[in-house]
């Protein structure tokens, strides 16, 4: 049973269910929920497939050591995942970091952990095609977990989220980037941080659903082309 | 520091702050937040004043033993408060219980714990004046903690809340009932379960603020009339 | 298959499905949708049970002969139902009619068709208990179809509807009235005219769901008390 | 031309237009707008008909001497109207005053000016029929201006307004009260303080429109019954 | 009279009115409403001017043979228009098709009917200037009907519509494209699929109104430059 | 005291307060409110620093002589500022003008007053880098007042404003442009025309706050680099 408000029990439940799916050879798709859910998913999937590559679209790196004095929050999952050996930071990459709330060293710290980081400003500088080429090169043919925080998008495309940051990406750009991931070896995916109560026109829900559809299309293309999904 | 998402730390913080205020002789007023906040408040205030009487306006009794397998949630604070000796159930009273989600025995269980319960149906039957007379008689001149869950009101007066129940009370009725509490010995108050994201017209916020104003007026009247607040 | 926008096909589909349920001895519950859906439901249920009594809560009588030149619309279902012999007007009753848009003779015409009509003003005059006594007396132990148009309620309880009329009934009043129907022989029910796009605080949805819950409770009570549902 | 943001020019324009209508024997109906618009209307209509009786439904008396240091605002029109001799306070009456923002002497000051005041609490005490009898007795067969501030209603019926006060009247109650005014000699009417931007479900607009409809019905009834409108 | 809910009568009415305007030499402008309204408009205008060229901005081609088993819906108008000889597909063009709901052959089928189609992906590839050059070349100096479905725009610019598709065009892009149509021989225009109930910030209404303004400007420019409008 | 609704008193109050801050050597930051507030701010700051350069991001030039017959409105502040010698038009520049409501000569008139104007269309033509180079060149090392009307942005980024114009700039573009202003000698800033009641998803508030953050960052960068702020 999922227990709202109890992080530990919730994480145990998520790991248990996701692992059951992963063991049957499926590619688990999880809809969040705050970004802390990625940690128990990674525990489940790496238990089946070994340490994973991470492709991480987000406005924030979520690699803090603590948040409000807590170790297991939506600001810390990927540091925990590295510490627990669930992901291999040297085959992992974060795209889209930006905004006003960073500690000056946030980006540097993530790099010190081994992650490659392409900030929103750097994406603008090098362009989308070069960005995606670097993403594909980073993960190669390793087993990949894709995590998409809806606040990667600009708040006009996703007002329904908890920590929006202006000057984000459009849904057209996100769609372009996702389609460039065709051919990778995905073993898991989550779409997180959708908050319906702040979504009066329901555009966040629409966009989030279509991001999932694009991921499903990547799996379908892989199947059609003889991939192993 | 208040730590969102960690019930235990949050409760410790609330108790510490509220106790500091109560020790200075003030009447703490707390705005919630889910109803679990009442428990640490009661710990703080009973530490100063001894076991308290409780006047509890709500659609739900919040006296379950567990909720989603957890002992400390917004469905359980008053059973915990009785177990911990923070309130004296035999001088305490709950008003307004109604709705679709009760276990058949919920009301009976609360009565077994020693509480007096006047359900919404019973309030309609005996009328507001008789209801309030019973409330005042129950608590007498003991030290009283007043807890007002905004879902005591009908959802049209308070759409911005987590577990609305139709067929509730109007703000006119609530105002009448609160004014009948003049002359009681209040030592604490909270107004809980306001959820701004579900309050598009802001009527919940307006009503909640006015409920607090009515409580402040009770204190002002007591002061004017030589009461001990 | 239900075909949106084609009244005739939609009605055929509704009749077919509802009839299948009614034939199995269940009490069909339909959630609308504009009030025209009651007609195909009545065709289905009267095919199984014979001409029915109708209890009709609504701000409007829906007994026009035509609406915008059309015979089958949400303003005409109950005249059609009488013409087709699906309901027996002399054992049927309408409650709650009010508002600004009536032809001066609307109420009189409904009475000429054989229906008993208690307008909102008349309900206020004679009171809820007397109103419900008349309802129960009218239908007696005949087989009853209950239709509840959400605009029976005041617009503050049901803003999400197409033709709201101020000065309607509260959810507390509606709940009282529904509970007085215990013991009747229900063979069908619908709750119609809920329009989610005009329901920003979702109070219409909540209230509508609870009205259905109250109807289910009537069936449950009948079962417990040895009734034939 | 109406000049937004310039009180003086706007008032001159309103007076000019309303006077032109009143001179032709019509009963001007004005939709506001903040309550300051009543003053230039009263100037226009009293110029044609002499000092008027005022029936004033509102949560606030609007008889301050100044508001934010200004003499001509939505908090002061009726003191100005008395000073300018536009209304006869001894044949005028205010109904519905309530709320948290009054100076302790507000009600008393209005009475000192000659007005009769029935507060919301007093209406609840004496009941609607007695209230309306006192209103009709107060104005008798004098020429009457009716001003209806939408915040007379409870905020759930009229969230779209600038200074809502809880514990107000329902639309059913307002409709009842307005209908008791049949037979009076109306020479003008306004419905003020509707604020569409704070009216997400549009219930304020609906209710306001129906209040105007009720006033039109009073004129129609007077015409039918041989009155002089 | 327009009859809501009866497709056939509504279409007859639209054709009758639009034809009357077209016969007087005006350029009819129609605001929809679902896209099925284009068919009766095209019947009217082609009756006056002969078979027309079509410029069609939309996320969907609307050239299905049937939708929910129906021949006359918002998914089928342009196949009907070709069958009825109202438009000449070989001088017609569709721009902006995209999204998740197509049958794999949708685009190909439209091309088989004779239409030129530039999908959203193709617009991105060849760029806006080249796209508009192809549009102008396609229709040349023939008589043109311009139909603009608001869902051509990205949902953030037009949330108030029935079948939004992400990754659409911005209002800046739409404005650019419309201005490149100066000099064409327009004989009719419609702007369709605006749905106010899903437009909480009213940006859809604003954008739609400005699209119409841009079309009016095209007519004004043509007049100024001695064109025949 | 600020007096709502009295332009003259409000302007006197603004000038008094802003001047007090400017005299202490701070860079006043004002959040509006309609654009008329810039005039009293400019009076205050130029009293301390002499005639200023103006950088003005907006959809509208606000240099009319009158608006609704009034001299002091949100459509006229910068003509007044030039007339009063508060700004030096020959070192001032406006960026982003566009939309449907201009008098044909609006832009030309602004240029006649001495201002440089780069319309939205011209920004699109010459590109953002060239635009910002011209801005910096225009003001050089003179003392600069920066005024940012939120309707410079496209309505999807700022629906909460009084006169939105489609085809505006994105928050990404605005952020880029603001960052190119590093190194200028700022003596004042305002962010105006935010209207919370029309901002259901709160994206306008978020964007406006971040624009202010970007300006604060410019001051911080100047301080770090040894500038005089």
Note down, in words, how this protein is organized.
Six copies of one chain form a homohexamer. Chain A has 229 residues and is an alpha/beta fold. Chain A has one domain (24-224): Ureohydrolase domain (Arginase, Chain A). The first copy, chain A, has helices at residues 7-23, 38-49, 77-83, 106-112, 120-126, 128-139, 171-179, 203-224, and strands spanning 29-31, 53-57, 93-95, 116-118, 143-149, 185-192. In chain A, strands 1-6-5-2-3-4 form a six-stranded parallel β-sheet, with helices on both faces. The model of chain A has no long low-confidence stretch (mean pLDDT 93).
* Spatial ordering of strands, largest sheet of chain A: 1-6-5-2-3-4
Percent helix of chain A? 40-55%
Classify the secondary structure makeup of chain A into a structural class. Answer: alpha/beta
- Principal-axes shape call of chain A: globular
Characterize the main sheet of chain A: 6 strands, parallel
Low-confidence stretches of chain A: none
What is the oligomeric state here?
Answer: homohexamer
Largest Cβ-defined interface: A-E, 14 and 16 residues
CATH domain fold name of chain A? Arginase, Chain A
Summarize the helix and strand pattern of chain A as letters: HEHEHEHEHHEHEH
Overall mean pLDDT of chain A: 93
Brief descriptors of the model:
homohexamer; 229 residues; alpha/beta; Arginase, Chain A; six-stranded parallel β-sheet; 8 helices; 6 strands; 13% strand
Summarize the structure.
By secondary structure, chain A is of the alpha/beta class. Chain A has helices spanning 7-23, 38-49, 77-83, 106-112, 120-126, 128-139, 171-179, 203-224; strands spanning 29-31, 53-57, 93-95, 116-118, 143-149, 185-192. Chain B binds chain D through residues 156-157, 170-172, 175, 200-203, 206-207, 210, 213, and chain D through 100, 124, 154-156, 159-160, 164-168, 198-201.
């Amino acid at each position: 049973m999922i227990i709202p408000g109890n992080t530990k029990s919730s994480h145990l439940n998520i790991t248990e269910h996701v692992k059951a799916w992963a063991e049957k050879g499926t590619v688990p798709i999880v809809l969040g929920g705050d970004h802390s859910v990625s940690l128990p998913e990674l525990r489940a999937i790496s238990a089946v497939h070994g340490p994973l590559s991470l492709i991480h679209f987000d406005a924030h790196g979520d690699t803090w050591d603590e948040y409000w004095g807590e170790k297991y929050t939506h600001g810390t999952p990927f540091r925990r995942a590295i510490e627990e050996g669930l992901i291999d930071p040297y085959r992992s990459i974060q795209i889209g970091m930006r905004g006003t709330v960073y500690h000056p060293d946030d980006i540097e710290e993530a790099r010190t952990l081994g992650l490659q980081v392409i900030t929103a400003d750097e994406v603008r500088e090098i362009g989308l095609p070069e960005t995606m080429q670097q993403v594909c090169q980073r993960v190669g043919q390793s087993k990949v977990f894709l995590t998409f925080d809806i606040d990667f998008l600009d708040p006009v495309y996703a007002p329904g989220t908890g920590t929006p940051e202006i000057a984000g990406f459009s849904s057209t750009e996100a769609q372009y980037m996702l389609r460039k991931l065709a051919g990778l070896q995905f073993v898991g995916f989550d779409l997180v941080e959708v908050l319906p109560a702040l979504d009066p026109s329901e555009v966040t829900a629409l966009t989030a659903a279509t991001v999932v559809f694009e991921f499903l299309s990547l799996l379908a293309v892989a199947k059609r082309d003889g991939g192993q999904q």
